[in-house]
Amino acid sequence: MSRALASAALVAGLVVYPFADRALGLQTVHAVSDGMIYVLLALGLNIVVGYAGLLDLGYAAFFAIGAYSMGLLNSPVLGSPLYGHAWSFWLCIWLAAAVSALLGVVIGAPTLRVRGDYLAIITLGFGEIIPVAIRNLGDITIEIGGWRPIERLNLTGGENGVNPIGRPYLPGVPFETDPVPWYFLILVIGAASLWAMNRLRDSRLGRAWMAIREDETAADCTGVNPVSTKLLAFALGASFSGFAGSVYAAKLQAITPGAFEFQVSIMLLCMVVLGGAGSLKGVILGGMLITLFDRVVLAETTFFVRWVGRTTGVPALVAADLTLWRWLFFGLGLVLVMLLRPEGLAGRRVRPAPAADDDADDATLADGAPAPRVDALPGWLRERMRRGGHASEPTPILEVRGLTRRFGGVVALNGVDLVIPRGAIVGLIGPNGAGKTTFFNAVTGLLRPDGGRIAFEGASLVGLRPNAIVARGIARTFQSIRLFQNMTVLENVLVGGHCRLHATVPGAVLRPPAVVAEEARARTQARELLDFVGLGGKADDLARNLPYGDQRRLEIARALATEPGLLLLDEPSAGMNPREAETLTDLIELLRRELGLSVLLIEHHMEVVMGISDRITVLDYGTRIAEGTPAEIQRHPAVIEAYLGRGYEQDLAARDRAR
Amino acid sequence: MLELADVHTYYGNIRALRGISLSVAPGEIVTLIGANGAGKTTTLRTILGTVRPRRGAVTFNGRRLDALTTDRIVRLGIAQSPEGRRIFPRMTVLENLELGAFARPDREGIAPDLERVFALFPRLRERVTQKGGTLSGGEQQMLAIGRALMARPSLLLLDEPSMGLSPILVDTIFAIVQDINRQGTTILLVEQNARMALRVAHRGYVIQTGRIVLHDDAAALLRSDLVRKTYLGEK
Predict the structure, then answer these.
(1) Is the ipTM of this structure higher than 0.90?
(2) Mutate which of B136, B195, B199, B228 to test chain A, going by most A C-beta atoms within 10 A?
(3) Are the CB atoms for A544 and B14 separated by under 8 Å?
């Protein structure tokens, strides 16, 4: 109730504000409207930086592209046929957004392979190129040996910019003389954008962006296509700046390249970081604070300082202009926020959540993970797996022949064969550095093999991207846990379901019944999976705050959410005590028994491997040195020599005698 | 030598340590065993000063540690092989090891110690020019231990040294632990492999949800019902 009341008060405040401003003679509506344009830009940038984690230092380029799209389409400079029509603004704003989105993809594409610092440098380059290009495309002459196909063509207006630009038209609304209609136009566009972004964030696509931000490799191996996900972030981020740019151009009626310089990119980035990257509220707050500080506070303070100067007779104060110092104030503000609240003014706090501080939890904690229960196994998973095929089928689920992979001069895998029959649990063991994880990376598509075949259910996997391999039905966990740390436990599992969901951008924004039903089903299924692995009560915790053992089980739940036929587990019991390892063993066996799941397991805990594997393959220096049943492997001389050690042999003999 | 008296450590509002008291005498191997999340790693972090206790005192050879910065503590002669192999991924194996000796005053002792590490882990010698990040998980574990040894500490903190190592290397690593100890290094060992840890240790502490629930000679702990059921997985 109080929430609804607060929203109503906010809407009322936003509607009343311009009239109150006029009644009081404050004349701040212009500044606030411009501020909202920058907020819209910052919100678009937030998709790229806050959600997808791609540091973009040249975002003003898209602002420029949006503004110039509007400027050139809706102005007489180029003789645009659209200029002069009453409704052309309303058409051009969509065209500008489309052009920006398209260029977002064009500019985004070459940056896909780079991350972090390198990506930032490339975007910095684009941010510089666009204003320079705009300046120089005002006077183009192309000369090919005396023939001039293009002579003195003015494409962008050069340094002088584009002028005039057509205004929007609505019957009876004075866009020419009054700032208030502009305020409402921008408010409506901003509110619609915010609504769309909110829905995108809570969709399959928003989760994919965040997964990419958190760990691109893990996201790829969980079925998220990093290429299309990143391009979508660039395109959507750019399209919002297309809206912002075109409104900006039409409001000013004139644009020049100087309005889109590097400082604008930095200011937008400051808004996002100050408010809290990834938080819509924070970005709005950051954006309004910075623009209003710049346009209202600094200007008013300058008047005040000059007045003080005049009354006290200090000439330095009379001539002061605080707006020239804006970068000093921005810088100081940013430094203070980063020191005191690094997550931004309204960002999600990444510190551990407050926990109940009672002593009653001692017993449960000491017991570690609860034992897996058959009746908790989600029905939908059982259903899905049954459709996947039967153990009686003769084709092995995975068949690897002659797999070879070199790193420089080191042969990490040397003609390795490995076959997993459907529904089998196969162990992969060997000394450290033998190539076990490299084998996993080759099967899951993270590494391209130099030779050999990998067939899943009879079809070759070589050359497929990791996310495509997940879609085929192979899921994995990682040796050093790779969760999406700053996402909730539930979101982690939902990312696992990404490749089984279908919502697209229009679907995610408009939410037709099919998408609503799909999303609700995905959430129910994810919660059931969490209940099954014993994390039901922690769905809303951040993954990073989970204790180690819970993180391991969450990784397995995330892998199961991809509905795999084959599960690759890389040292799942590392760092667990024998009791915890036993619970894990029970879980793996239950999955195989109840779901017919096939499992390939790298493991150093011999009680685990020998206890559940049907067959074991042993690697040493990239070569298969043994293959057989656990009983055969335990007594294999080469395996004892290279891997198990004499101590293990003695223990085994002692155990045999004890029987 | 090392003494923790009623140490309470918090992460935010979470009480990770709820009054830990333990002591390590010169020349000892002392092991700390317990389930995941019990507070073993937090205890090591508190000793090294990467987290601060809210209450209680940590003393080392009579000096209070809980007000010193981590680099000062390391210079007093404590080194750690951290859990999760926090090696320097873009530096070579050799550079990683040399950095371990960064705070050492005796330059001439470094070369023999490097030899000693290579003798313990021949695999590291094979990979000496490789970047740390390109090593396999188990090799990184060897490197982390080797780097800690290079500091020639008087007290060595080992956090799950056997994690991710093959059975044959687990045997080796515990033999190494005893070996280092015989050469005069005192060791505080945190391990999931409680059986092996208790075999090499002189004394042990059992930690549950931030409290010491049991401490005794290692041999006695190996026989105790609680340890056998909870940490050795015996029925």
Answers:
(1) no
(2) B136
(3) no
